[in-house]
Amino acid sequence: MKPRVAVHKFSSCDGCQLAFINAGEALLQLATLVDIVHFAEAGYADEEAVVDIAFVEGSISTPQELERIRTIRANSKTLITIGACATSGGIQALRNMHDTQQWVEGVYAQPEVIALLADSTPISERVKVDFELWGCPVNATQLFAVVRSLLSGVTPLLEQETVCQECKRAQTVCVMVSRGEPCLGPVTRGGCGALCPAVGRDCYACFGAAPQANTAALAEQFAAQGLAPEAIARRFLFINSHSEPFHSEGKKWQGEGK
Amino acid sequence: MMSDSTFLPQSGLAQLLTELAAGHRIIGPQVEQGAVQYRSLQGAAELPWGVRVAQQPGSYRLQRQGSERAFAWANGPQALKPLLFAPRESLWQVVKTAAGLSFSETLPPPERLAVIGVRSCDLAALALQDRHFLQGASPDAHYARRREQLFIVAVNCSHPAATCFCAASGDGPNAVSGFDLLLDELDEGFLLTPGSEAGQQLLAALSVSGVTPAQRQQVEAQRRAAAVQQRTLPSSSLAGRLLELASSPRWQQIAERCLACGNCTAVCPTCFCHSEQEVPQLDGEGSEHLRQWDSCFSAGHSLLHGTPLRADTAQRYRQWLTHKFDSWHQQFGRSGCVGCGRCIAWCPVGIDVTEELHALCGDEA
User: Fold this and answer.
1) Digit-coded pLDDT (tens) for A47-61
2) Residue A257 confidence (pLDDT)
3) What 3 state SS string does chain B have?
4) Quick one: average pLDDT of B149-159?
5) Which residues of B touch A162 (CB under 8 A)?
6) Contacts of B38 in chain A (CB under 8 A)
7) What percent of chain A clears pLDDT 90, i.e. is strictly above it?
8) Which of A28, A34, A72, A42 is nearest to A54 (CA)?
9) pTM for the complete prediction?
10) Would you state the pLDDT for residue A256?
11) FRET label pair with B230: which of A181, A231, A258, B344, CA 20 to 30 Å apart?
């Protein structure tokens, strides 16, 4: 029997699910290797299915989502988070640093129908996660490599190096050294192929912090190059604001928040 | 050696490139993405005419000058290394067949490359890379394939950067060997010195004239001036010295500034560390074995059976510096540093290897 696979969605933009769909031919090949039993965006809907591999996109933001993720965990042999939302709480975790209730009351005509948890959190804060794939969105090559590893019965090899390593191998000229851009590549986990520097812009760390991330030294360098403290704070408090060491580094430069 | 030299007027550069292009794909310096980079060169017009470079720790900026020279810049982030030791390449592949696994090597297609503009520091680095990849017990077939047909036109460095210290490492600024043809650039043209039989042949096809005493004097003055550099190395050999400083508090101080990003090792022209990985096809019917540049600053570099031997940045920086400047002597009979200064300029936080060495050895920079 072929392994059963589900792709679930929580609070997110659907962009990581699109990494599957955009893969085109690879997705068709995947469909011959596994049974995709739940993937609402692609048309398969059986959310309660018991599966071998569950991919989870999105963060846990509501009481209903908390219940759903517990059921999914119980039904899944291997649970893999895909993308920044599921892995670190995502861009929507910016609300964790503010009074969410006040925002809800300011935005919605009937705030009482909006049920929210106090924080937008990564899946791993709620249930056990077996593997985490970073990125906003995830990189399809990484995604399919993890699937291949699991099909072969080997532990997937996850990226540990910095974006700088990929950037230098691509022979992209460093945007920080040559132009003074506040690039987060030196403290960011690789896996994207150093996409942003390749098009001449600074990395904004959508793949999260690299294992040895020395955010303090990089932030000091940004300051020495003239970046204002608030701007430094925003570099770190962005897509992965809820994860360390970005959270503490950002708060340090922001001064007192919340 | 300058006695073999002849003079080629600036207008003759096009002829030199045409002669080279007859048997080679030419790689030459060009401005791309705000830096001088070695790329396929279609003609003399693509060279970085009038470009100079200002380099400081953590900073590299192009400057346009009125000067009519093509080689008046100090090195950019890379030169020969990526042309010979590919940043990422397939070493072999394997497919499942009815008879079992079938392996095949994936050598790069043979190609005659000519690189123009190579600096003395990079020739010294090339000699070290040759030593590592070709002169050991198991020569590297991929490196050898690219290396054996390489034609090198070196250019003596006339405008070293503030980050350069090739005079201190003993590797420049003037090239003495390892090239086919050597150029000294003057405003009105080039002094040409052959370094091999192939270089001699190329020279014979060019419309050159004798070198005037004034031109000779200008070149001599230029060579002397380029050797006056700001950065120095500790005055006595570091062989055996850094390893004795393994417990210096300086390593921890450097680690507080170091990002462990690995930029220094990626731009270092002598760093040869790499990692290898399997890239299987999704259907599991075949796999490619990839080699890519790695760094002693990455976690995987010292990972043995799931345990990193050098878990923190202080240990990784110490590994890099002690290998490069100390244990390299034991391994290759000389220091692993050629004084190009790239690790200083391209470090995002501007850590200066010469400053660290002076501090570790307890002497003044």
Assistant:
1) 999 999 999 999 999
2) 39
3) CHHHCEEEEHHHHHHHHHHHHCCCEEEEEEEECCEEEEEECCCHHHCCCCEEEEEECCEEEEEECCCCCCCCCCCCCCCCHHHHCCCEEEEEEEEEECCEEEEEECCCCCCCEEEEEECHHHHHHHHHHHHHHHCCCCCCHHHHHHHCCCEEEEECCCCCCCCCCHHHHCCCCCCCCCCCEEEEEECCEEEEEECCHHHHHHHHCCCCECCCHHHHHHHHHHHHHHCCCCCCCCCCCCCCCCHHHCCCCHHHHHHHHCCCCCHHHHHCCCCCCEEEEEEECCCCCEEEEEEEECCCCCHHHHEECCEECCCCHHHHHHHHHHHHHHHHHHHHCCCCCCCCCHHHHCCCCCCCHHHHHHHHHCCCC
4) 97
5) 259-262, 298
6) none
7) 95
8) A72
9) 0.96
10) 41
11) A181
Q: What is the pLDDT of residues A110-128, one digit of tens each?
A: 999 999 999 999 999 999 9
Residues B179 and B38 in one domain: yes
Distance from CA of B58 to the nearest CA of A (A): 5
B 70-129: CB under 8 A from A: 76-78, 82, 87-88
Mean pLDDT, chain A, rounded, equals 95
Give the residue from A116, A151, A186 where a domain finishes. Answer: A151
Band of pLDDT at residue B364, cut at 50, 70 and 90: low
- A209 within some domain: yes
pLDDT of residue B1: 59
Range of the domain at B123: 2-226
In one-letter notation, the amino acid at residue B151 is F
Chain A residues lying within 8 Å of B77, measured CB to CB: 168, 171, 173-174
Look at residues B38, B226, B74 and name the one whose alpha carbon lies nearest to residue B150. Answer: B38
A164 contacts B263? CB cut-off 8 A: yes
* Helix axis angle, A15-22 to A140-151, nearest 10°: 70
Residue span of the structural domain in which A234 resides: 163-254
